[in-house]
From TrEMBL:
It comes from the Bacteria. It comes from Rhodobacter calidifons. The keyword Transmembrane applies. It is found in: Cell membrane. The lineage of its organism: Bacteria, Pseudomonadati, Pseudomonadota, Alphaproteobacteria, Rhodobacterales. The chain crosses the membrane at residues 12-32, 38-57, 64-84, 104-127, 134-154, 174-193. It is a multi-pass membrane protein. This is Branched-chain amino acid ABC transporter permease. Coiled coil: none annotated.
Length: 225
């Protein structure tokens, strides 16, 4: 009976947030202004990033810088798989030939980028989330610095600090709106799930949570992914 009670008490939050996002989309749609349309798209993207940060930081209490690195990893996979082969050959000549010739649709690339980022989140999370407190925060910052150093200097593969051009862009509001609302509900579902409740228990009362059999490292790894 506890789970339905939690659902009823908390469902208002994702519903209100989703309604606000829909309102933003409708205002931009009726306004018909391309700059305002892009601003609202940027808002939706920022919501997705912030909700992702909340899912880990808000539940675990550990300040993490790693999500920025995972966004970088996924973003480059999306770029490598959507840019025209000729442009990739000129801007990033160090890419393997099969990757240079590969060109898949935008949404397929988005899924591939997300899967790649999730894989590395699993790898790094299994190691870093054995730490806690400031030690975990420093470790995630070190991981971010490492990813930044590699991708900022590997010019033949990432174009280094030069702008990567040729990535197809979707200007329609609605896919971004759906993604933002989905992110809100996924974060909410995780927060009321067994894993989310266990993670907050480990955050607030680590000794009692450990005595109850909560594996803090496992919970944080699940949240990081």
């Amino acid at each position: 009976m506890a789970r339905p009670s939690i659902l009823r008490r908390t469902i208002a939050t994702p519903l209100i947030l989703s309604a606000l996002l829909v309102a933003f989309a409708l205002v931009a749609w009726f306004a018909g202004s391309r700059p305002f349309n892009q601003t609202v798209i940027d808002i939706f993207l920022q919501v997705i990033f912030v909700v992702g940060l909340y899912t880990f930081i808000g539940n675990s209490g550990v300040i993490s810088f790693g999500h920025i690195a995972f966004a970088c990893l996924g973003g480059y996979v999306a770029a490598w798989t959507t840019i025209k082969p000729m442009m990739k050959g000129m801007a990033m000549p160090g890419l393997p030939n099969w990757l240079t010739q590969l060109e898949i649709p935008f949404w397929g690339a988005a899924i591939a980028g997300g899967a790649f980022a999730a894989f590395w989140a699993l790898v790094f999370g299994a190691v870093l989330m054995r730490l806690s407190g400031i030690a975990a925060s420093i470790a995630t910052f070190a991981m971010l610095a490492m990813v930044n150093a590699i991708y900022s200097n590997w010019s033949s593969v990432t174009a280094a600090t030069s702008s990567v051009v040729g990535i197809p862009i979707i200007r329609s509001l609605w896919p971004y709106l759906v993604a933002a609302i989905l992110a809100v509900f996924v974060a909410w579902a995780f927060s009321i799930s067994r894993y989310g409740l266990a993670l907050r228990a480990a955050r607030d009362e680590p000794t009692a949570a450990a005595a109850s059999g909560v594996n803090k490292s496992l919970m944080r790894s699940c949240s990081a992914r």
